[in-house]
């Protein structure tokens, strides 16, 4: 019998993405996906467990780009707190393989940015903000059952929007609710 402590989750194709999504978290998640694509059986999906309050847009989209280009399917299991950019990660898994646990808390809101500087800098930042908003809308249209109006009304509402696991299934953010993590 192999002692349970001698087995890493990563060697089994599972990864825990817990906490804020920043450069370090992004690096570790992408490293796991790349290594897994190099050494694991292509017929066995990876499983990414997500419990995150969100974080940096660029770091999250780096993980999503890696997930979407992985030759291995990626199951997402949302548990605990799924907020802000964590909602995008939950939706980025392979369709049909996106799970949420029954007690998960999900919060979506408008993304934020800070604008300061001279007028021409503010204009450039507004253009970048508009491009990013389109990127978010395109992502959710492709990865959920929501149309642009629903995305704006529900996920980009003026204040934080708390969703139940059932609502997440209804809107296609995830595919099913499970009482079990695996």
Structure notes:
With 182 residues, the protein is α/β, with parallel strands linked by helices. Helices cover 42% and strands 20% of the residues. It has helices at residues 23-39, 57-69, 85-92, 119-143, 148-155, 165-170; strands at 14-18, 46-52, 74-83, 98-101, 105-108, 161-163, 176-178. Strands 1, 2, 3, 4, 5, 6 and 7 form a 7-stranded mixed beta sheet that branches. Helix 3 links the parallel strand 3 and strand 4 (98-101). The longest helix has 25 residues, at 119-143. The model has no long low-confidence stretch (mean pLDDT 92).
How are helices and strands ordered from N to C? Answer: EHEHEHEEHHEHE
Question: Which shape, going by the Cα principal axes?
Answer: globular
* Main sheet record: 7 strands, mixed
Residue windows where pLDDT falls under 50 for at least 5 positions: none
User: Cα-atom Rg, whole angstroms?
Assistant: 17 Å
Which structural class best describes the helix and strand composition? alpha/beta
| Portion in strands | 15-25%
Tally of individual helices? 6
